[in-house]
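Reviewers of the previous submission asked for a worked example of the structure-prediction workflow described in the proposal, so we include one complete record here. The input consisted solely of the amino acid sequence. No template or homolog information was supplied to the procedure at any stage.
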Amino acid sequence: MSGDPDLARAAPVLEAVRAARPLVHCLTATVSMAIVADGLLAAGARPMMTETAAEAPVVTTMADALVINLGTLSTDAMEGIPPTVAAAVRDGRPWVLDPTAIGIAPVRTPLARQLLGSRPAVVRGNASEVLALTGAGPGGRGPDSSIVGDGTEVAVEHAAREVASRTGGAVSVSGEVDLVLDSQRRAQVARGTAMLSRVTGTGCLLGALTAACAAVQPSAWEAAVAAVAWLDLAGELAASRATGPGSFRMHLLDALDEVGR
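From that input alone, the workflow returned the following structure tokens.
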């Protein structure tokens, strides 16, 4: 990957993550906890995971960054998320909102919209989730859902800009071409592989990687761009070695450690 412009841009952030080994508190989907934890470790960061209202706000005071993922929202998480976010905001820790599979879901959708008021450093989602955050779309039918159709790209970018204006942070939209923007800057990353959508939890992992990058990079936009490039480049490398989704998952962990070294 020598001479790769996407890698060159992300490299300083990758190096900083590996040097600092940030501790990322992950309130994430139960179905993706293993790949999120393993992926963070492979990248050089450190995960911890607890979601109860009694412990999560206290535990997050030890973390360098927080990621909130609404993928499999339990009763414990529903109660634990607001005070945990409040603790991170109080202490000035960067936090990432991953509004997984919001849309018609009666609990997670209003919760995600409420959490925007706590000004996450980065909101990371797919097109349908970003549209659902602003009420411009119904959301998807699962964590990897996307939407297509005339005007979709314009609508998604408009929704992303609306979210960024509410939070003052960055918005990272996953898709065939990833989009990262804030109030002043915009980047597209046309990298990655379709294999990333065939393994559960890679989107959740991207949210956690984004939090790890935000822990070492004060610019939320730069952190989000670096995280997208990191996962996409690792995905490309893993796909070149894999024979199917199972081996791809294994190679992805190796590649997260290898990219940029």
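The chain has one domain: 5-258. We consider this example representative of the routine output the project will generate in years two and three.
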